[in-house]
Every structure is written in C-alpha cells, then in structure tokens.
Design brief:
With about 190 residues, this protein is mainly β. The chain has one domain: Jelly Rolls, CATH 2.60.120. Strands 1, 2, 3, 4, 5, 6, 7, 8, 9 and 10 form a ten-stranded antiparallel beta sheet that branches. Strand 2 and strand 3 form a beta hairpin. The chain starts with 6 loop residues before the first helix and ends with a strand.
C-alpha cells in the first residue's frame, strides 16, 4: 500500500494562504575570511587562516586575537535592525572578551598576521564564553547600519588576564555565523 504524496497539499496550502505563509528569510552567512593572529615574538608573521579554530590568549604567555569578515550586503532591505554573532565555543573561559568592529576590511585569511593586522575600533561589545557550545553576542551597536562587508576582531578584555578561549572557525565543524535582521523584516 503506497502513501499519497503530500506535495499537492502543500502547494495548495501555499497558494491559498498567500505569501504570508512563507517563512521570513534571514541572512546567516558564515565568514568569507577568518583567522587568528599571535603576538608572540617567534610568531609575529605566522599565518593561521586555514586553522579550524579561532584562538584567544591575553596573558603572560602572549596575545592572540581572532578576526572574522562577513558579507552582509542587502541595500534593498533597508537598515540593519539587529546583528547577532554566533560562535561555537570549543575551549570555554569566564574571563572577559570583547568584539570590535574593524573598519579596514582589506585583509584576507591568507595574508593576515600579527604584524599587519588592522586596528579594531575602540568601541566594543563585552561577552564571556563560560561553557562549550553555541553562544550569541549582539553586535548591532558596533556594525555599520547599512551592512556591507564587515570585519570584526575578538580580543581579550584589556584589563583582564584571559587564560585562553577557542572557537570553531569556518574550517571547523561549527562555523561562526552573523545573523542579520533588516528593517522591514521580522
């Protein structure tokens, strides 16, 4: 005995219900580029763009910062209403971390190293990653309202000795995401 196909029923529902029955499309891009850089004397020009992790260290052992670039260009959708950075925590830390906008978007994961990393804006969003798994950070306040190609840096808080933290990179099993909600959309 064969079961009837439900495809005609779904098509009829969408036809009768109209466009409001269709789900709202939200942008969920993964980074176009991501890498971490190390400020350790022996590694000022080491390149980590193909690493499956994004690393953060802010301690006597040295510094590491992570950079991510996203393309969230949607000029026809109006202004950016909300932007949420989603990171998958591999090595948690309760110490303070910061997300900064980086106005210079010319870097690539194949070329960025500590000695040529672009400077982040001084404004930031503070967060912590106390457990492994997905976390969400509202980054709306630090991103340009029109979207476009955006670059961000994740750093340890200046006044905190961060032990270390690691996040999955786009080459890892759980790539970062930047969820954008635009004016006129839910």
């Amino acid at each position: 005995m064969s079961l009837p196909s439900i495809a005609p029923l779904v098509a009829a529902f969408l036809l009768l219900a109209g466009p409001s029955a269709r789900p709202v499309q939200r942008d969920r891009p993964i980074p176009t580029d991501d890498a971490y850089v190390q400020g350790i004397p022996l590694c000022l020009s080491c390149q980590f763009g193909s690493s499956p992790v994004l690393r953060l260290i802010n301690s006597y052992r040295g510094l590491s910062q992570s950079y991510l670039k996203f393309d969230i260009r949607h000029p026809s959708r109006g202004g950016l209403r909300r932007a949420t950075l989603r990171l998958f925590v591999l090595d948690p830390s309760v110490d303070g971390m910061e997300v900064h906008n980086v106005p210079d978007t010319s870097w690539t994961e194949d070329t960025i190293v500590w000695s040529n990393r672009p400077a982040p804006d001084p404004e930031f969003v503070a967060f912590s990653a106390p457990r492994a798994g997905w976390i969400s950070v509202d980054v709306t306040s630090i991103l340009p309202p029109g979207g476009g190609v955006v670059s961000i840096a994740i750093t340890g808080a200046v006044d905190t000795a961060l032990d270390s933290a690691e996040f999955s990179a786009k080459e890892g099993p759980h790539p970062p995401k930047l969820l954008a909600v635009w004016s006129g959309h839910a």
